[in-house]
Amino acid sequence: MKSAIYLLSIAVLALGLYSFEVRQQNTQLEQTVQAQYTNALTNASEKLSTLQRSVSQSLLFQDQQALEAELDNIWRISNEFRSTISSLPLSREVANEWLRYVGNIGEEAKYASDNRDFEGWHDRMQVVNQNLQSLSDEWTVATSNFYQNDADLSQWTNVAEKETEQSPFKNVASNLKTYSETDFPLTASESDWLKKRDLQNLDDKEITKEQAIERLEILIPGIKDATYTVTKSKEDAPYPFYHIQFVKGSRIGYADITVKGGHILSFLSERPIQEQKGVSQQQVRDLTNEFLKRAGYNDVQIVEMRENHQAWHIALARVVGKDKAFVYPDGIQLKISKDSGELLGLNAMEYVQREEINEDQKVVPINWETFFRPGTHVEEEKLIYTENEAFQLRKCYEVIARFDSKQNETFRIVVDTENHDVLKVEYMP
Amino acid sequence: MVRSIFMSVILIFGTLAVVNPNQTFAFSGQVVERGAFGDDVIELQARLQYLGFYNGKIDGIFGYGTYWALRNFQEQYELDIDGIAGAKTKEQLVSVSEYHRDWVHEQIEKGNRFTHYGGVPLAEQTTGGAGSSESTDVQLPAKYTERDLQLMANAVYGEARGEPYEGQVAVAAVILNRLESPDFPNTISEIIFQPGAFTAVADGQIWLTPNERAREAVLDAMNGWDPTENALYYFNPETATSDWIWSRPQIKKIGEHIFCY
Fold it and tell me: Which has the higher per-residue pLDDT, A170 or B174?
């Protein structure tokens, strides 16, 4: 009996010590997280004040050089504020509204600086300056509790879990929403994002789900007679489409086909893939071209082929005009298995919602020898259409340039054909 | 006598075949060109490096570095300069270089930093391993990195490993859609670790080791596939308690998840 009590006491003591240690560790962890959140909150508050001051200061200058420096500053601070605010456990709604509003300010600053639209900036920012001041004040009120002595992690947990209506950020969220709508009706990036839903403008004839399956089987004969489950997109979807899921042998996959016109948006099939390579790169190229012909994609060409463990990913782009320029935003992607050359995937959404092209954009020749430093060789040159930072589709030179060095470092450079702005520089490994 | 001469000849050729590695390990019958990946490319890079034409990393990815090196080799050996390793080019390459296949593959598997220059002892061309391979073993579109792939594969595996393949690609696509949307942070890491954004981050399942299927799903999303039709959010209707998420315009349901704007 004595021994049992003795052993039980030791067990209770050990359990007590263990739970004490666990509790202490949890407290330490909570304190660390709390400290990080407080640090992020302080940073966000400081950056918000700095941003508000910078916007205010930018209204002082008429001198272009001084204004440009301030605009660059605003763009930088807005990015930093976005990064800090996204590390705070705010509710989704509050975080999104902040990111959008401040992102808009940064985007406007970049646009004004790039396009030297200083008057436009002054006009738009009069109101934004006042609204930013009021947001800054509301933010200070909403966050004051987080600095008090009895502040603990549960305060943050509550913010993350509660609906915005019940959170201390209720007013901030509501004003952000209003100001976003009034101060920035539709910025370039938002309108670019909304373009993705342009398929709602399709006015082709509607097809039935049986016709959709038929169309799929013509394009992808390999899945003929599969077992299909077809559902229609939800009512809120901006454009209606059939979601076709199929099973055939070891193949399981899906395809989305628009109800209007029966355009295939995407198709993906999964099956076990053999290790050994059964088709060569040339055969993959031939299979790609055969498929394009069968599917009626007559105006696209291969831009890039990438081999990976199981499959080839092939990027294609629409080719337009007399100068055969590649329209990169109107792309198609294919996935072809390495073992048998079977088409495993097709993505044609961007191709279906094709861009409007301005073929009249001037093409001013560039002397690459003076454009690049000596020792840089231009190996390839072609014309493409791509978006600039203001999300406008521009005709550009795409150049593959190589340093004449031991490493043969290679770059892809995209230059606007009219104003010679450099839109992209990418290192090509 | 004739028999012993015959045996000697066989013995000599047999020995040569073992000693001379360039005859033991030669390319497969495939034509190798830009975009290719795998053992043939590893051999091509190693042989080009052996001759001093290629100074980059031997990683099995036929990029521009390999392309220019091959063209330079073709020029020097008066072959057709097309940057494609066809039969003639490979034959020439095999005849003038050596390839220590086992050693090269061992270095790659160990994640060692190494080179394969001719005339330098192999032991002097490796600088110890990191313990695990950090080498790039996939070809990604230029705007993404191997780190992005790893992070996203962790997120997809943690969030949707029980979902169909389409559902896994869909989760990866949502992350990439957020990258383009003005309402979200500007990097993949910030998007994944935005507090409250993903359940797998909150419950630690993001740290589970992802399987090949999750990586393949991310690879497909990075290459353009988006089964969600541009969704920014998803939720499980069985467990979602937020009124806000139910208020979002819904697009489609895949597996257990409803995808929405």
Answer: B174
